[in-house]
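Notes, Module 5: Reading structure tokens.

Key idea: the token line is not a picture. It is a compressed description, and you learn to read it the same way you learned to read a sequence, by spotting repeated patterns. We will look at two proteins. The first is printed below with its tokens.
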Amino acid sequence: MVALNYQTPDLPMRLNQGKFLANGGCGYILKPAYLMDPNFCYKDPETLNGKNFPINLKVEIIAGRHLYRADQSKGICSPSIKVEIIGLPFDDKSFRSTSINSNGLNPLWQETFEFEILCPEMALLRFHVEDGDYVGAKMDPFIGQAIFPIDCLRGGYRSVPLLNQSAEPQELAALLVHLEFQ
């Protein structure tokens, strides 16, 4: 059981919502077999004892569309994407794309990132888009985010709809990505 503050739209809340996309939000996901092993240590991949099914995931960020900050009075944004795997400590990894200068309407990246994931059942793929051009402490660089369970993803070209900080869909904002599993 986990205690979450539903009044605060923070990262733990977004991760919880992303994890439960796997079962339609019904609230129950069966633990993988290695989590029930008393010898398993979440920090040591050697204790998996072959009960996991590792994968290699290649994520190509192709393009975006209609990427804008919530505060649109600050001009055109220069979007940058952080692609990360969030799971057990030995699977956590992140990459950041280049910032596309002054093009929030249809930025083009064509950047590829590779992840080796030992426990895909416990991992989430997070796309976090922010303005790489923001300046100052009062500026909010957030543009949008999307979080998906790794074991629910399919390979191929995908349009990833972005959510705002309250986990509501942003109108027309999306990323075009290509996922490849090995």
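Here is the second protein, with the sequence above and the tokens below, as before.
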Amino acid sequence: MRHILTPKVEEVKLFDRYTAKKPAIGTLYLTATHLIFVETSCNTRKETWMLHHLIATVEKLPLTAMGCPLHISCKNFHVAHFVISSERDCQNVHQSLVRLSQPGKVEELYAFLYNPKQDEDERRNGWGFIDSAMDFKRMGLPNEFWEMTDLNKNYELCSTYHSELGIPKTASKSTVFGSAKFRSRGRIPTLSYYHKESNAAICRCSQPLSGLSARCVEDEEMLQAISRANPKSTFMYVVDTKPKLNAMANRAAGKG
């Protein structure tokens, strides 16, 4: 990449700020995605990898008798203190890391520069790595309680859900569409995980548009159909994962 001024610096010291042991000596590499430090002062090839996008700050400290210090703090609380013998090399590494860790525009992110060694057909086939129908088949669907439906094949039911959805067999088409109208962005209660030995299911959905007291017969029928889909259980948990403050704000906006 054009931002890497010096891709390799040898005889770099890495200090351990928690102990007083001697610094590790090795070679520092800059790649398009990582800073890599490879120790040469030990029998085992110990490597330290730091992802550019995890770097929070890079500080070039004043020159000392040992060399030019470079202090790096990461967003995952990893801190590294390097000393580079050449001030010019240290300056180049510092400038490179600042540019690599703080891209000026989204097009400079590595995702836009990555060019895998694949032909066009292989790239297009990548969309087939995740097959929801095969995944549900692995879980045991369809069966006597659940079925796969293509009611969302044109994403008209819900634009953020998959085209194939797992719903209870007893839920009618009118129940599904009525529930979608009562749910934020049409995100009806639909199957995410099924345990075929116990018939236990985990379903996901958005909050209902209930406001203070509104109800929806179709949405209630949808939940009852989910409950009936597990004859081994007499109850169903409904869990709201939003923070309490968000839930209160949604209620004020007419949502559940």
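Summary for the second protein:
- The mean pLDDT is 89.
- The first helix runs from residue 87 to 101.
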